[in-house]
C-alpha cells in the first residue's frame, strides 16, 4: 500500500489507483478514518455513506484488476456540499426545515459528472443554513471549524468542504459560490478556489433570476482544480443558462497560456470596502510578486465603486421562493434568527422595486466593463479580514473600523453580481498563523487566465497542501 500521509491530491490519488499502488477501497477507508478522526475537532461532515462508498470502490478495483480503462478520477473519494444533491444521501441544507429529508433520487449535474469520472462520494459536507453566511454554523448541524485554528471559521458557505480538504481528510469536495462561498473558504483554509462564470458549469437551477450562484469544487492544487473544471464544464439540455463547450482543455491552459504583457490592476478595497491593514499588506505584496512572476504590466486604472450590498441582497433573494416549501411562513421560528427575517422582507419586494435593483445592477456591470477596457485582470484581497470566530457572526468591525456585516465578504461578491470568473490563491499567513487569500478576477469566460495565473503563483510561491498539524 502506498503512503497516504499526507493525503494525495486528486490527480495523484487517481494515478495511484491506476498503477495499482493503492486500491480504491484503501483510499475510501483512509478518508473515512480521517473524517471520523477530525469530526469532533472540525465538524466538517454532516452525513457519511460508508457502505455506498465501499461498494463503488470495489467496482473500481474489480475494473482495474480486469485491465479495463479507468476514467480520470477512478477511485478518488470526495465530499458533496449539503446544498447539493447526491443520489442516495439526504440534502438538509443546514436547516431544521429539512432535518428529516430522505435520500436524494439523483445527483446534481456536477456531482454526476465527477461520479461519471470515477470519483466516489463518501458523504455530505457542512454548510450554514441555506448557504447564507460567510461562516459555517447552523441550528441543525452546529459549528464547523478551521483546521488552521479550530477557534476560527473555515469560511462559508462551503466551509465543510474547505475544512475537510485543508485538513487532508479528502482530496477534493464540491462547493458552490453565490457571494464568495468557494473563494472565501478557500482563502480561509489556505486553498486555491475558482468561481466560474455563471453557466460554465451547468446546474438544475441553483439560481435563475439572480444568476449569481455557481457550482464547482475545492481542491489543494491548481492541477486538480483544472482537471475538475475540465470534467465539470459543458452544456446540458436541462439547463437553459448553460454555456457551450469552452473549446480548450484547462489542464493544458495552466501550463501553456501566454499571460505575459497582460495589464493587472491592484485594488485593496474597490474604493469602499473596510479591509484589515494586515490583510492589505500581505495581499499587496503577493499581488506585486504575481505581477512580476507572470510578466504582467501594472495598470493604474482607478477602481472606485459604491457599496453594492443592497443590489446583492435583493438579487440573491429573487430565487428564494423558487423552491420554497408552501408552509415557509408558518415555520420561520425553526430557522436561524439571522436568516429568518429575510423571508418576509423579501416576500414584500414588488416588481417595480426589483426592476430598480436590476437597473442598478446594469449600471455596475457597465462600470466594470469600463474598467476592463483598461485592464486585463483585477487583483484584490479575497476576504477583507482574517478568519473570525467559528460561531460567527459576521464582523461589524474590521481593523478597528466600524462596518456592516457584509464587508467581510464584499470583495468576493462583485464577481457574483456582475458574473465574472475569479480565483483565490494562498497569499500568506497573518502574525497569528491564519491563511490569507489573494483574488484574481478576469473578464467574463476567461477562467483560463485565472487558472494560468494560479499555476504561475503556485510555482513562484508554493503553499502548504494541508493545514499544519497540531
From TrEMBL:
Per the UniProt record, one Pfam family is Amidase
InterPro entries given in the database record: Amidase (IPR000120), Amidase_CS (IPR020556), Amidase_dom (IPR023631), AS_sf (IPR036928)
List, for all copies, the residue spans of the domain called Amidase. Answer: 26-297, 358-451
Molecular-function GO term, any one: catalytic activity
> What is the protein's given name?
Unannotated protein
Q: Which species is the source of this protein?
A: freshwater metagenome
Amino acid at each position: 500500500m502506498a503512503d497516504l500521509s499526507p493525503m494525495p491530491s486528486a490527480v495523484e490519488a487517481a494515478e495511484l489507483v491506476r498503477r495499482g499502488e493503492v486500491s480504491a477501497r484503501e483510499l475510501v477507508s483512509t478518508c473515512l478514518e480521517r473524517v471520523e478522526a477530525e469530526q469532533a475537532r472540525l465538524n466538517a461532515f454532516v452525513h457519511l455513506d460508508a457502505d455506498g462508498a465501499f461498494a463503488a470502490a470495489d467496482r473500481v478495483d474489480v475494473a482495474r484488476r480486469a485491465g479495463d480503462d479507468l476514467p480520470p478520477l477512478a477511485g478518488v473519494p470526495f465530499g458533496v456540499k449539503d446544498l447539493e444533491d447526491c443520489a442516495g444521501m439526504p440534502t438538509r441544507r443546514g436547516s431544521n426545515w429539512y432535518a428529516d429529508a430522505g435520500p436524494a433520487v439523483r445527483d446534481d449535474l456536477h456531482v454526476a459528472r465527477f461520479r461519471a469520472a470515477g470519483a466516489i462520494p463518501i458523504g455530505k459536507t457542512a454548510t450554514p443554513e441555506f448557504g447564507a453566511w460567510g461562516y459555517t454554523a447552523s441550528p441543525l448541524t452546529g459549528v464547523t471549524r478551521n483546521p488552521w485554528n479550530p477557534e476560527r471559521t473555515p469560511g462559508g458557505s462551503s466551509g465543510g468542504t474547505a475544512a475537510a480538504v485543508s485538513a487532508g481528510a479528502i482530496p477534493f469536495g464540491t462547493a458552490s459560490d453565490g457571494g464568495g462561498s468557494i473563494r472565501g473558504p478557500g482563502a480561509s483554509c489556505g486553498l486555491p478556489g475558482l468561481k466560474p462564470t455563471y453557466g460554465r458549469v451547468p446546474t438544475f437551477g441553483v439560481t435563475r433570476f439572480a444568476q449569481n450562484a455557481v457550482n464547482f469544487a475545492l481542491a489543494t492544487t491548481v492541477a486538480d482544480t483544472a482537471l475538475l473544471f475540465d470534467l465539470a464544464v459543458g452544456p446540458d439540455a436541462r439547463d437553459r443558462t448553460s454555456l457551450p463547450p469552452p473549446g480548450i482543455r484547462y489542464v493544458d491552459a495552466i501550463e501553456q497560456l501566454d499571460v505575459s504583457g497582460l495589464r493587472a490592476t491592484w485594488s485593496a478595497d474597490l474604493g469602499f470596502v473596510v479591509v484589515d491593514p494586515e490583510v492589505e499588506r500581505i495581499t499587496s505584496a503577493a499581488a506585486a510578486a504575481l505581477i512580476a512572476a507572470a510578466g504582467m504590466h501594472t495598470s493604474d486604472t482607478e477602481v472606485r465603486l459604491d457599496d453594492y450590498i443592497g443590489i446583492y441582497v435583493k438579487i440573491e433573494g429573487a430565487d428564494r421562493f423558487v423552491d420554497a416549501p408552501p408552509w415557509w411562513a408558518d415555520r420561520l421560528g425553526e430557522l436561524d434568527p439571522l436568516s429568518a427575517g429575510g423571508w418576509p422582507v423579501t416576500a414584500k419586494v414588488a416588481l417595480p422595486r426589483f426592476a430598480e435593483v436590476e437597473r442598478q445592477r446594469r449600471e455596475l456591470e457597465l462600470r466594470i466593463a469600463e474598467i476592463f477596457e483598461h485592464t486585463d485582470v483585477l487583483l484584490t484581497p479575497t476576504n477583507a479580514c482574517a478568519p473570525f470566530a467559528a460561531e460567527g457572526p459576521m464582523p461589524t468591525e474590521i481593523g478597528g473600523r466600524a462596518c456592516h456585516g457584509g464587508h467581510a465578504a464584499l470583495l468576493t461578491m462583485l464577481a457574483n453580481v456582475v458574473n465574472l470568473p475569479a480565483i483565490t490563491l494562498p497569499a500568506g499567513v497573518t502574525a497569528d498563523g491564519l491563511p490569507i487569500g489573494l483574488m484574481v478576477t478576469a473578464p467574463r469566460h476567461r477562467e483560463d487566465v485565472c487558472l494560468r495565473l494560479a499555476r504561475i503563483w503556485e510555482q513562484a510561491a508554493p503553499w502548504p497542501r494541508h493545514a499544519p498539524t497540531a
